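User: Design a sequence. Structure:
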């Protein structure tokens, strides 16, 4: 019977050469003014299952043998100092019975650190490949969602009102769990959101851990195929380290937020993040029109682009490869511009390498031919959408709000886009609130903005 301990790939020993140090990218997805604060500046981690122990699953051909498994350690040469990552008593969850035991073991914790890993760089559609959880006592649990189909016991645990789920830049983690497993979260705390309200110069987990705790994370494994099994020892260390220190980091950030009087601000934004709905993915027949350069194409060129876009989607699903690894978006647009009629012409298109032509050349040729044969009345067109007209009075209010934000942001110590996002500036200017009570009713304003800065915002609007 499995003992629940982590089983690394025996091919990667503690004395094996390590990958060079990589830092997590400070990236994410921006939200609109009515959504929660994005955990990261500038914007932000979706096949067939694989068993982390290498067990062959009947619906996927690429499997290895089951591997023996010592407890994960983090004291190999070239890794962070011993005080940064001690031996982690991590637990493996790969059956429903394992999950029930994990939930029982986690139920006594008022706070749980959470992270996930996906395989979007290697497979299509993307799958949730790993769920990591940690308790304040240092226990780390790794759950394999490719082996355990029903994660609802864990979902119920994380939706209990008395329990806080702690993440770092958790947009993608929440999207995975909400969309694929119908998770709901009663209480969230995102350490990247907290760091934004403390005006941290960088939001990466590695930077924050080193600054607040003196901890250095293991080398990044974000480009790994996390659905491949068995996981390597380095992957296990990386996955565990992402949650092992998160609760301690949260405690440090909460202390600073209390001193700054901003804890309730972060709590309100995290509550909005928890409540943010996640739409189901649906096929968008007009997606090809949003590629860069599509608007410059003729209707015939758009027809070629549409055929190529649909071809790429079909090939990506058929070969379980991300679409960008079939054909890059810029290559699709160049093909639509050139509409090559034979292989020599195809070879002249930038991005159409000999390998691309060898693998997909015939399919590309057929797609172009179909588009060129379509009658004129079937050609797609991009309809121009006129921007909503903003009244002159609202335009003046927009300018005054921008001026106020430019002066207030450095004084308050918040980045301008966090203090008052552009979309929120427009919404406030159009609504023209006369007092804080009217201001707070505008979607996305939040109580913290209205209470802390509502008087200044209303005053900045000027006369109606």
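Assistant: Done.
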């Amino acid at each position: 019977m499995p003992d629940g301990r982590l089983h690394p790939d025996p091919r990667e020993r503690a004395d094996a050469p390590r990958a060079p140090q990589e830092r997590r990218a400070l990236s994410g997805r921006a939200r609109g003014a009515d959504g929660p604060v994005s955990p990261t500046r500038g914007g932000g981690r979706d096949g067939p299952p694989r068993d982390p122990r290498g067990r062959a699953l009947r619906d996927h051909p690429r499997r290895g043998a089951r591997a023996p498994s010592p407890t994960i350690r983090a004291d190999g040469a070239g890794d962070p100092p011993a005080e940064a990552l001690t031996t982690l008593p991590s637990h493996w969850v790969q059956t429903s019975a394992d999950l029930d035991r994990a939930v029982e073991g986690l139920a006594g914790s008022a706070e749980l650190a959470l992270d996930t890993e996906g395989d979007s760089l290697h497979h299509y559609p993307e799958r949730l490949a790993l769920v990591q959880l940690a308790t304040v006592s240092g226990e780390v649990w790794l759950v394999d969602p490719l082996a355990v189909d029903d994660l609802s016991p864990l979902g119920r645990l994380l939706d209990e009102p008395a329990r806080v789920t702690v993440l770092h830049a958790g947009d993608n983690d929440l999207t995975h769990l909400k969309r694929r497993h119908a998770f709901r979260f009663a209480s969230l705390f995102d350490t990247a959101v907290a760091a934004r309200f403390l005006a941290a110069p960088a939001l990466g987990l590695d930077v924050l851990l080193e600054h607040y705790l003196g901890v250095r994370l293991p080398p990044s494994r974000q480009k790994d195929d996390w659905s491949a099994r068995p996981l390597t020892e380095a992957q296990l260390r990386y996955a565990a380290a992402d949650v092992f220190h998160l609760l301690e980091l949260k405690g440090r950030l909460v202390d600073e937020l209390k001193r700054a009087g901003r804890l309730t601000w972060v709590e309100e934004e995290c509550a909005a993040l928890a409540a943010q709905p996640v739409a189901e993915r649906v096929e968008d027949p007009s997606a090809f029109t949003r590629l860069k350069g599509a608007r410059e194409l003729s209707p015939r060129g758009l027809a070629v682009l549409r055929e190529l876009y649909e071809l790429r989607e079909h090939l990506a699903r058929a070969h379980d490869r991300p679409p960008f690894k079939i054909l890059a978006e810029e290559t699709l647009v160049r093909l639509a511009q050139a509409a090559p009629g034979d292989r020599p012409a195809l070879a002249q298109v930038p991005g159409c390498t000999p390998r691309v032509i060898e693998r997909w050349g015939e399919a590309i040729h057929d797609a172009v031919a179909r588009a060129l044969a379509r009658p004129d009345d079937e050609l797609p067109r991009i309809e121009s959408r006129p921007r909503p007209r903003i009244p002159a009075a609202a335009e003046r209010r927009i300018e005054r709000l921008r001026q106020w934000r430019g002066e207030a942001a450095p004084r308050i110590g918040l980045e301008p886009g966090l203090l008052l996002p552009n979309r929120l500036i427009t919404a406030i200017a159009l609504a023209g609130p006369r007092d804080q009570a009217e201001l707070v009713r505008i979607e996305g304003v939040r109580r913290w903005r209205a209470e802390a800065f509502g008087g200044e915002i209303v005053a900045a609007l000027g006369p109606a």
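Residues 287-378 form a domain with the DNA polymerase; domain 1 fold (CATH 1.10.150.80). The first strand starts at residue 90 and ends at 93.
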